[in-house]
User: What shape does this take?
Amino acid sequence: MESIERIKQDIVTFAEEKKEEFEQTSSYIFAHPELAFHEYKSQAALCDLLEKYGFKVTKGVGSLETAFEAVYDSGKPGKTVALMGEYDCLPEIGHGCGHNLIGTSAAGGGIVLKEIMEKYDIGGVLKVLGTPAEEKGSGKAIMLKEGVFEGINAALLMHPSSNSVPDDISFASVAIEFTFHGKPAHAAACPWKGANALSGVQLMFHAVDMMRLHMKDYSRVHGIITEGGVAHNTVTDEAKAVFNIRALEYDYMMELVE
Ligand SMILES: [Zn+2]
Assistant: This one.
């Protein structure tokens, strides 16, 4: 086996050679922002790039039309490693979160590593997985349920940031909508006949704030009121709030959900 330093140097060299092409793909995705589950142009751009460099590409994986799987099989025994790429944008903002860079990094990283595997005769299977709908809809969770990650020993993803770190914390996360039902009444003529659903929502926000004192480190509970009534002179009979609940561990997150 060649020295790891030599291989690292080759990775840099191969990446530099294709830098412009990768940047073009990233810029194209940035200029054509697509919302979760509608990432057709971004999917095509990344799949074209991977196909050009010899990956076997399948567009559409399981129930997700805008997912893709690109495979390089060395034909020799070894581990199966996947690089994951996202490419959906934020509503009204576009690629504010840099998913154009994530998708292109996965494809570019795969292309460079395939060359390394070939040059140094490294066994195993390398996959680039296009994982849609990160901003909303949890594409990866759907792919996990549908068995796409079966047989994969390690899966990696990079997310752009202001600094370079090999690892960072990530949260288990769930979004829940709460609906409060009350009883309508005119708020001036006979408010005593009503029951205010908005009061329930307000109370919930206060209760959550009181609970924060007792939550473990790295817990996050944050929400908005999505429906607080339609007329201010009536007692609100239906009100809604949406909360995100996050924790480092899934089990503790579920305790918070409870
Ligand atoms: Zn993001």
